[in-house]
């Protein structure tokens, strides 16, 4: 088994594995929801950006010429923080240690790239995925409610043991409401990062997305993970539904 960087020839294998892995791990999701997500996140043009990006870390597990798993991670802009977005293994090849090999290689590469803090995301319904993180030394930091295809789901955020949550910075909205922005967490936009803003400091209820380009606070993310700033047009493309919060 070889763990190597993503190549352009891997596109169809990655799409197939993502589709079959999501169906196996998340029985609560409808087939059409999964298919729409795959078409959105792994379109051919998106892969070109992944291959050229210094911020996206994409590894595949290959058995001879067959890709049987992949991990996708994001190095957050201007921060020493990495986030594991996805770790998928072909259901027919699970139980062989492939996920562990991918996870170890991903952590090692993120550390080599300068990240000092690594987090991972998994829906609460995925018992196997949650157990995987705890088995490999991660602990649950907090959970949050997200919406996928008009249905609410709980998503757990895991971090390496001993990880401390960053302090949220209070800001006042145009309606004189107090919100709390997490500047230690970001999502890449075309003109600058977006940062999540919360109603309370417990992080359970998201208010919106703070645009660093123009400092507006109430930008929403759609059900596939896009954000477009209401004021300046700063655009975040989808990589998962990890924040279809609103």
From TrEMBL:
<feature type="domain" description="N-acetyltransferase">
    <location>
        <begin position="1"/>
        <end position="161"/>
    </location>
</feature>
<dbReference type="InterPro" id="IPR016181">
    <property type="entry name" value="Acyl_CoA_acyltransferase"/>
</dbReference>
<keyword id="KW-0808">Transferase</keyword>
<dbReference type="InterPro" id="IPR050832">
    <property type="entry name" value="Bact_Acetyltransf"/>
</dbReference>
<protein>
    <submittedName>
        <fullName>GNAT family N-acetyltransferase</fullName>
        <ecNumber>2.3.1.-</ecNumber>
    </submittedName>
</protein>
<dbReference type="GO" id="GO:0016746">
    <property type="term" value="F:acyltransferase activity"/>
</dbReference>
<dbReference type="Pfam" id="PF19133">
    <property type="entry name" value="DUF5816"/>
</dbReference>
<dbReference type="InterPro" id="IPR000182">
    <property type="entry name" value="GNAT_dom"/>
</dbReference>
<dbReference type="Pfam" id="PF00583">
    <property type="entry name" value="Acetyltransf_1"/>
</dbReference>
<dbReference type="InterPro" id="IPR043854">
    <property type="entry name" value="DUF5816"/>
</dbReference>
<keyword id="KW-0012">Acyltransferase</keyword>
């Amino acid at each position: 088994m070889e763990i190597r960087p993503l190549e352009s020839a891997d596109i169809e294998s990655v799409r197939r594995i993502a589709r079959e892995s999501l169906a196996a791990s998340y029985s609560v999701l409808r087939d059409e929801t999964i298919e729409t997500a795959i078409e959105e996140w792994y379109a051919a043009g998106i892969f070109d950006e992944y291959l050229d990006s210094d911020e996206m870390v994409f590894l595949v597990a290959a058995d001879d010429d067959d890709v049987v798993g992949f991990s996708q991670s994001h190095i957050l802009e201007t921060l020493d923080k990495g986030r594991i977005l996805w770790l998928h293994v072909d259901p027919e090849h699970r139980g062989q240690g492939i996920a562990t090999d991918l996870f170890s290689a991903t952590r090692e590469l993120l550390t080599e790239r300068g990240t000092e803090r690594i987090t991972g995301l998994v829906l609460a319904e995925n018992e196997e995925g949650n157990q995987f993180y705890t088995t490999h030394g991660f602990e649950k930091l907090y959970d949050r409610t997200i919406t996928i295809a008009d249905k609410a789901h709980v998503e757990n955020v895991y971090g390496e043991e001993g990880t401390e949550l960053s302090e949220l910075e209070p800001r006042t909205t145009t309606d004189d409401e107090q919100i709390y922005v997490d500047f230690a967490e970001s999502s890449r936009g075309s003109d600058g990062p977006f940062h999540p803003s919360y109603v309370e400091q417990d992080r359970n209820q998201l208010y919106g997305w703070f645009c660093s380009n123009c400092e507006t606070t109430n930008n929403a993310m759609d059900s596939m993970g896009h954000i477009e700033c209401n004021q300046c047009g700063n655009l975040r493309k989808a990589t998962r539904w990890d924040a279809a919060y609103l």
